[in-house]
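Issue: ligand-bound run for hypoxanthine - logging full I/O for the record.

Environment: standard queue, default settings, no custom constraints.

Inputs:
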Amino acid sequence: MFYRKSKNTYLVDEVFYMSIHISATPGDIAPIVLMPGDPLRAKYIASHFLSDTRLVSETRNCLFFTGSFQGKSISVGASGMGCPSIGIYSYELYTEYQVDTIIRIGTCGAYDTNLKLFDLINVSQAVSESSFALTAWGMEGSVMDHQGKAFDMINEIAAQKKRDLHRGAIHSSDVFYSNQEGFSPLAMQHNCLGVEMESFALFANAKQLRKNAACLLTVSDLILAKQKLSPEQREKALLPMMELALDAARAL
Ligand code: HPA
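Outputs:
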């Protein structure tokens, strides 16, 4: 039996399921969420860095965990791939779970030939051909800024720890595979350092809802040089990004 209880809250056989795509109960998710694309990366972060960790949602295997990092309650959960997917999860976290801050932690392909594998980028702006912001919120334009204070905190912690960090615009592409020659003209016009697929929608949702959002990326591919991290390198490669995101989340 399925009863509508209130907006997006359903009572199913006496069990509450909050929000359509996340099955955590209210209070199970911390105000700060780290958000990798891959559910197994969320699990890795939860098991390696958090204590008193609980699995709070596994709807569609999009795993969310909540635990403690050096005394601060933090959640980590997956966004899936692309603007539509992160658009759903970030919206529900912000509106149904009172989340204040989402820090996406992902990988990107480098357009800029000064970038090297393993480099870290703190995304100042997402540039996209995506219709997400216009369709969802009537926001015109193809550039979306990071939102709130998380970006500055990531810069501050990186400076304290003497960790090299690039800052700049990223191309949030809607496609991974394409038959088009060369890089996106829009991305070139805005001097994008590289390409990923999610930050534009995350920043648009945060802007609409007046929340905080940042995106920290590890360079996993050099597109012109046709080099990429091996699967074995990937796990180790992402550790500095995870540590920086956790330290920033703790300090926020
Ligand atoms: N394209 C889009 N997203 C990515 C890439 C890429 O080449 N590499 C890592 N994330």
